[in-house]
Specification:
Chain A has about 525 residues and is mainly alpha-helical. Chain A has 16 helices and no strands. In chain A, α3 (about 60-95) runs antiparallel to α4 (about 105-125) and α6 packs antiparallel against α7 (about 190-220). Chain B has about 40 residues and is mostly helical. Chain B starts with 7 loop residues before the first helix and ends with a helix. The relative contact order of chain B is 0.09. The model of chain B has no long low-confidence stretch (mean pLDDT about 80). The chains are: A mainly alpha (about 525), B mainly alpha (about 40).
Chain lengths: ~525, ~40
């Protein structure tokens, strides 16, 4: 355990600038993610305000398109990914009994790339011609035609990708080499397992995105024609390479949340996780399948029937390991002594919301059906159920679950429940009506729409404002918990199990300097 | 009890892991470009 001199660290700004401590870096990542969530959330309010009623009222169409583009990029690369890396930094060393991450200096660098990349991306909006307006998928020819703001974004994506790759190398090196004696791979907590698999996904696909973005940059500035049909290239090539990254990216955002659910549900059901081995294999299967389904995002570009059939069936196959996980969580709860503290609400809510997104995903996987739904609000509803349901619910669940451990104080349970329910209701109010809008034919990424879509759009806008407003409660709750409150015990929750709960609350600045023995 | 902070074997294993993963990063980056050129 830590001795007094181990706890010495610089204070003030230099502590945070030069820190190599996994807990400090985890905190930095989480704060960064929250700031980006607020920025991305405000962009979504611009989008929803514009769509309050038909007939242009607030922003010009080009700026609207920039908002949909940058909202997505900020939320994916600035909020969800860094948020989970923050959790990984805080938790993985404490869960496997390691003193820190394997490469602490690189860890500092991984983080400090992020604020500069995010600044670059946001600054792009203020350049002549504005930011990128091609959608987060950056399809050519639109992305080739954009102004200098697009270059800012492309460079930012390169930097964010580098940060993710460095972070992933660190996570894999830590998990494979720094586990406490006795902790075999199949004894690792599920959160660690899901992060190990996610880190491999990141390492496999972020360089592919980097390759694609590099080609886009050379098309824009160095006279190449990779994606230019006029020069012998093919814009559809971008779609293939982008989605080879883009589909695994969905699981990069979702798998760590599955790990969080697998930690929380057994704790509050007071039963061990049902089917641990099958959970591990299901996670690995989802990761494998994510590499062979990319073209389901682009059925409508036209491809051979055999290709359509292959991608349709491969996509449907993902429902099998995903179903294994959902049934395992339900079986864990079955006949458990369940209580419904805030983290458990987020976990159950997350599984519920994600499952709805999974089912609409199965609908979209069916090729002829997708021809009808493609590029409509049905797709927007679907992926928000998947990504919000897993990533946002998972992140909030994790923060509420481990906040007492991190701060040494219990949070206010009433505020926690208010935050959960307002977000849950606000989210569903925002996105459930979008299924109907999509089925009725409303296209996505448009600043205006036909009169008959007005009512559902209004519900959606009210829900969006409610969801964002609810986050003020979380902000207040988190600050209050950091400053004080009832003292948390070391174990925090009655049903908690794992190495992190053997440490004090808050844990010492340097924990597990002597490796614990795992039986 | 092993001193996890000064374990040279562990350090070597970490370096090997990093080298292998870096190679994977390079291969994936190059393969994206190569497939596009092919």
């Amino acid at each position: 355990m830590a001795t007094a001199h181990h706890a010495d660290h610089p204070t003030g700004l230099s502590r945070w600038l030069f820190t190599t401590n996994h807990k400090d870096i985890g905190t930095l990542y989480l704060i960064f993610a929250f700031v980006m969530a607020i920025i991305g959330g405000l962009m979504s309010l611009v989008i929803r305000s514009e769509l309050w009623q038909p007939g242009l009222q607030l922003v010009d169409p080009n700026f609207f398109n920039q908002m949909t583009t940058v909202h997505a990029l900020v939320m994916i690369f600035g909020f969800a990914m860094p948020g989970f890396v923050g959790l990984a930094n805080w938790q993985i060393p404490m869960m496997i009994g390691a003193p820190d991450m394997a490469l602490p200096r690189m860890n500092n660098w991984s983080f400090w790339i992020l604020p500069f990349a995010a600044t670059l991306m946001i600054l792009g909006l203020f350049m002549p011609g504005g930011g990128p307006a091609a959608g987060w998928t950056l399809y050519p020819p639109l992305s080739v035609q954009g102004g200098i703001g697009t270059d800012f974004t492309l460079l930012a994506i390169h930097m964010l990708g580098m940060s993710s790759i460095l972070g992933s190398i660190n996570i894999i090196a830590t998990i494979l080499n720094m586990r406490a004696p006795g902790m075999t791979l199949m004894k690792m907590p599920m959160f660690v397992w899901t992060w190990l698999i996610t880190a491999f996904l990141l390492i496999a696909v972020m360089p592919v995105l980097a390759g694609a973005v590099t080609m886009l940059i050379t098309d824009r500035h160095f006279g190449t024609h990779f994606f230019d049909a006029g020069g012998g290239g093919d814009p559809v090539l971008w779609q293939h390479v982008f989605w080879f990254f883009g589909h695994p990216e969905v699981y990069i955002l979702v798998l760590p949340a599955f790990g969080v659910f697998s930690q929380i549900i057994p704790t509050f059901a007071r039963k061990p996780l049902f089917g641990y081995d099958s959970m591990v294999f299901a996670t690995a299967s989802i990761a494998f399948l994510s590499f062979i389904v990319w073209a389901h995002h682009m059925y409508t570009v036209g491809m051979p029937m055999a290709g359509e059939l292959f991608f349709m069936y491969a996509t449907m196959l993902i429902a099998v390991p995903t179903g294994v996980k959902v049934f395992n969580w339900i079986s864990t709860m079955w006949r458990g002594s369940m209580t419904f503290e805030t983290p458990m609400l987020w976990a159950i809510g997350g599984v519920f919301v994600f499952t709805i997104g999974g089912l609409s995903g199965l609908m979209l996987a069916i090729t002829p059906v997708d021809f009808q739904y493609h590029d409509t609000y049905f797709v927007v509803a679907h992926f928000h159920y998947v990504i919000f349901g897993a990533s946002v619910f998972g992140l909030f669940g994790a923060v509420m679950y481990w906040l007492p451990k991190w701060t040494g104080h219990m949070y206010n349970e009433t505020l926690g429940k208010w935050h959960f329910w307002l977000t849950m209701i606000g989210f569903n109010l925002t996105f459930f009506p979008q299924h109907f809008l999509g089925l009725a034919g409303m296209p996505r990424r448009i600043p205006d729409y036909a009169l008959q879509f007005t009512d559902f759009n209004r519900w959606s806008t009210v829900g969006a404002f409610m969801t964002i407003a609810a986050q003020l409660i979380f902000f207040y709750l988190a600050i209050r918990c950091m400053k004080g409150g009832a003292k948390a015990t070391d174990k925090v929750w009655e049903g908690s199990d794992g190495l992190e709960w053997t440490l004090s609350s808050p844990p010492p600045y340097h924990s597990f300097t002597v490796a614990p023995k795992v039986k | 009890m092993a001193d996890v902070l000064h374990d040279n074997k562990q350090r070597q294993r970490i370096h090997l892991t990093v080298a292998a993963l870096t190679l994977l990063v390079v291969v994936m980056f190059v393969s994206a470009a190569w497939l596009s050129l092919a």
